[in-house]
Amino acid sequence: MRIFVTGGAGFIGSALIRHLIDDTEHEVLNFDKLTYAGTLSTVERVAESNRYRFVRGDICDVAAVRAAIAEFRPEVITHLAAESHVDRSIDGPGAFVQTNVVGTYTMLAEARAYWLTLDEGTRAAFRFHHISTDEVYGSLGAEGLFTEETPYDPRSPYSASKAASDHLVSAWGHTYGLPVLITNCSNNYGPYHFPEKLIPLMIVKALGGEPLPVYGAGDQVRDWLYVEDHVRALRAVFERGQVGRTYNVGGHNEKQNIEVVRTVCAILDRLRPRADGASYAAQITSVADRPGHDKRYAIDASRIGDELGWQPRETFESGIEKTVRWYLDNEDWWRPLVAARAAERRGAA
Ligand SMILES: NC(=O)c1ccc[n+]([C@@H]2O[C@H](COP(=O)([O-])OP(=O)(O)OC[C@H]3O[C@@H](n4cnc5c(N)ncnc54)[C@H](O)[C@@H]3O)[C@@H](O)[C@H]2O)c1
After folding, report:
1. Pairing mode, if any, of strands 284-287 and 246-249?
2. Residue 143: other Cβ atoms inside 10 A
3. Contact 156, 135 (CB under 8 A)
4. Which residues in 74-87 are b (16+ Cβ under 10 Å) and which e?
5. What's the pLDDT band for 50 if we cut at 50, 70, 90?
6. Beta partners for residue 127, in sequence order
7. Ligand 1 lining (C-beta closer than 6 Å)
8. Is residue 190 classed as helix, strand or coil in its secondary structure?
9. How confident is the model at residue 346 (pLDDT cuts 50, 70, 90)?
10. CB 126 within 8 A of CB 283
11. How many angstroms is it from 197 CA to the middle of ligand 1?
12. pTM for this model (two decimals)
């Protein structure tokens, strides 16, 4: 199949592309603006494949999207391009509305215009797969899980913009019959994760001897999904998922943020002990909590398990060990990104 991936230079999109080139016969077009979050070093390993192409473009740019779709003639569009960092959405929500809402609208409108030109068989087989987050469901108390029926209740500008984009995708399915699929997943982690997100940030700061900033008491609970498990789920959904359906994807790994940070420290203590013999955990520092910080997210991923046979392969323990080792072995990838990254604290207000 010809698969048009938006945001393929980012964390999850690049993992999807590496998987599609390594493990399938599919052809891939990577359509990405290369914002601060996107770098082609994430797909360097597969860039020489004759089944891979890259187009630098903005999903809000109608002409660029139209031309890329017309030229590539996709059978599937997997839409991952987004502004994705909650803290940045607190500082500058406008970019989130633009890319996540207007950009998704542009992708839908151009996908539909192209889809209408297809012959009947190709049109029936076409899929528009939108990748979203469990954060659209809001925050849980101590008990319960998000299911695909949980009402939307987004709290941050990021999750509100993703919720809006999910509604647009669903409307294009209901109103125009575009064959859409939506997945809502929990927090991903793994190789090539931009070093502003919790796990890589902690690894990088620990190695740099800096304080490890944990929001508030660090008792917020997230479900952690290894990125390579996630991309196998995405493939199962766009290859075999039922049109119009939403699938939640989670790792069955609920952890408090502070537990995650302590685990990272313990692995680093074993693999690269501090010169003074102390634990990296001594660098943990509590900082003021993120405004409106959701307490707990947890996913019921039974639908994708029951209907499509997907299960995560990694436990948190195996995935976090692989991740920390990857960052230790790939300093050449993240050091230039860290050097370029603005030093200021984001998301304070
Ligand atoms: N990372 C997670 O834990 C997580 C969890 C749930 C859902 N998601 C969703 O998955 C998707 C991918 O997330 P990620 O973590 O890989 O994000 P990321 O920030 O690592 O990558 C986003 C990519 O999109 C590109 N991009 C941004 N704006 C663009 C634009 N206007 N036009 C074209 N390209 C643009 C960037 O250059 C980058 O390559 C997002 O839609 C996000 O909302 C992520």
Report:
1. unpaired
2. 7
3. yes
4. bbbbbbbbbbbbbb
5. very high
6. 76
7. 6-7, 9-13, 32-35, 37-38, 58-60, 80-84, 99, 103, 131-133, 162, 185, 187-188, 194
8. coil
9. low
10. no
11. 12
12. 0.95
